[in-house]
Amino acid sequence: MINDVKQSAEHKMQKTFETFKADLAKVRTGRAHTGLLDHVMVEYYGSPVPVNQVANVTLIDARTIGVQAWEKNMVAKIEKAIRDCDLGLNPASMGELIRVPMPMLTEERRRDLTKVVRGEAEGARVAVRNVRRDANNDFKNLLKDKVITEDDERRGQDEIQKLTDKFTAEIDKALAAKEIELMAV
Q1: CA–CA separation, 104 vs 63, rounded Å?
Q2: pLDDT reported for residue 136
Q3: What secondary structure letter does DSSP report for 31?
Q4: How far apart are the first and last CA of the chain?
Q5: How far is the C-alpha of 32 from the C-alpha of 116, rounded, in Å?
């Protein structure tokens, strides 16, 4: 029983950490990466779909993303969707290829992005602590139902706390690395 609760909590904390890392990848620095356009939605025959489902998204060089539409009539729609998204990008189409250059970040924008990243990190820490709370409640319920002893409950809570500390440290490490990356010129 204790191991089931622990494994479930560890799995949820791992998922939270992976989600946090994916969110960090979306915060752009001066470098281009294809994941930047993952949440850009394009109107495709009446329904919004992610740009990577209607086009090939590749890196042309370190500061430019290339978007190759699968259908010629989608080029203008994709270009408009990229321009209208909140990333501050200015795509330029060259025939069927859309080039999306990454503008240099200003010092003020870097500081703003650092604040955004810190907010994401705090959200991830809160999610990890919520998993800990749920696991501890599970231990309390098992104790109340007399499935485990008080010693087992205490031992389980200690193990969950160790997991919480481990994942919080991982989140802090990823946050520090992203802050260094953001502030690098």
Answers
A1: 9
A2: 92
A3: S
A4: 51
A5: 19
* 56 Cβ contact partners less than 8 Å away, ≥ 6 residues apart: 66, 67, 68, 70
d(CA 153, CA 142): 8
Give the gyration radius of the chain's Cα atoms: 22
What are the phi and psi torsion angles at 162 (to 5°)? -65, -40
CA atoms within 13 A on the CB side of 28: 25
Centroid of chain to Cα 165: 20
Structure tokens given for 103:
């503008």
Q: Please tell me the total number of residues recorded for the chain in this structure.
A: 185
Residue 15: predicted pLDDT: 94
Q: What is the DSSP string of 136-166?
A: HHHHHHHHHTTSS-HHHHHHHHHHHHHHHHH
Residues in CB range of 167: below 8 A, 6 or more apart: 13, 14, 16, 17, 128
* Regions in the chain scoring below 70 on pLDDT: 28-31, 86-87, 185
Token digits of residue 31: 């470098």
